[in-house]
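pipeline: protein-struct stage 2 | run 1193 | PDR/VanB family oxidoreductase
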Amino acid sequence: MIEVVVTRKHREAEGIYSFELAPVEGSMLPAFSAGSHIDVHLPNGLVRQYSLCNHPEECHRYLLGVLLDPASRGGSQAMHEHVHEGSRLRISEPRNLFPLEHAAGYSVLFAGGIGITPILCMAERLARIGAPFELHYCGRSAGRMAFIEYIRHSPFADRVHVHVDDGEESQRLDAAQVLSMPAADRHLYVCGPNGFMEHVLGTARERGWAEAQLHREYFAAAAAPASEAGGFEVQLASSGLCLQVPANRSVAQVLLEAGIDIPLSCEQGICGTCITRVLEGEPDHRDMFLTDAERARNDQFTPCCSRARSTRLVLDL
């Protein structure tokens, strides 16, 4: 854990604050690469992931952008209401599950709403190294788009296209046109609401972009229909203990209630913190972390959200 202090809290847009974090001891923070995020341990005991959006060469500070989610499970609400300038927080070292492909000949960046946070860091990096790219930033209105003024006055402003829902029809995002040239050395990066991301990725696939050229980062997992969440049993390989997982409880919740300590963070199958080995049985993968190939092996799953297709899963616990 790294202890940091909030040196600046600033209202960036409607419902969005930025938080500048600096090391308490005055030393440098760990280096990070574009697309990285950190775990933030909140005052209410929750742990949440937030992307780093400042330039990767800035190790004297980390900059976060946090949207107050109307359906907040306590994370964004705690950041907005209980974290202030001068507050001390514990954070993890940066991790990168959304890295840039530096061999790309051209990068196309898409940000929807608060999805600008990792995308902005990527734009900073690409601009610094002189790599060709374009950024499409989409939002409901300019007043709801974080860092918009900074971007408009940035050294890469001429590579940014802003698309707002309440603006002229001519400036709306035409993903089909933007993605009409799927050259082998082009890479696409997208972050934002699930619907926005699926639109961009789906359009890219229709235009012939290869899956290896498509990169995404989810902020929230889509909820599985309740009708699909049947009960099943998990067994711990070390002790033989069997636990029933009812339809309304996750495997992680059942394990924790039984005194089995497992690491948890996002609790939505996005971060991969809780990945657990599966020794027997067939998981029902509902995460957004594992690749299709990793899911097909059925030898690990995310107990925070995934379930079982078989009547029992034997876990390496």
